[in-house]
Amino acid sequence: PQTVEAQEALADLCADQKLYPEAIQHYQAAIRLEPDLAVARNNLAWLLATADDTRYRNPSEALAQARQAVELSHWKEASFIDTLAEALYVNGRYQQAVEVQKKALALEPGDKTMQEHMAKYQKAAGT
What distances in angstroms separate CA 72 from CA 10, 16, 37, 110, 123, one per listed residue? Predict the structure, then answer.
């Protein structure tokens, strides 16, 4: 069905199964239907930044989508901020990734995955 919910659900399922072209298409469809859907923008950004199959990575688009997701959520969703940090990292902006990840960890200081991401960003930034 051509509903936001259906497109987002299909995108998530496809991403889980590593069906990246289909996932990208469904995330884009969800965003076309509801441009302010921060979660779809965030999930698309994560896929474009971290896809196992590097043919589907698009660091610059990942950064654009992640920035929009964070802005739409008013910097209140730690996982979206984490995605923005990852997008900065894959674009070679290591120090910025560290600074952004600090904001994610301020919201969820005990999150082990975000702490691991921070360690990776700090190592890349040489800090």
Answer: 22, 24, 8, 24, 30
Question: Are 42 and 12 within 8 A, CB to CB?
Answer: no
Question: What pLDDT shows up at residue 46?
Answer: 98
For residue 1, pLDDT beyond 80 = no
CA 46/CA 59 separation, integer angstroms: 10
Distance CA(51)–CA(45), nearest Å, equals 10
Q: Residue 87: is its pLDDT beyond 90?
A: yes
Q: In what helix (H) or strand (E) does residue 109 lie, and over which residues does it extend? A: none
Question: Are the C-beta atoms of 55 and 18 separated by less than 8 Å?
Answer: no
Please tell me the distance from the alpha carbon of residue 86 to that of residue 42, in angstroms, as a whole number: 11
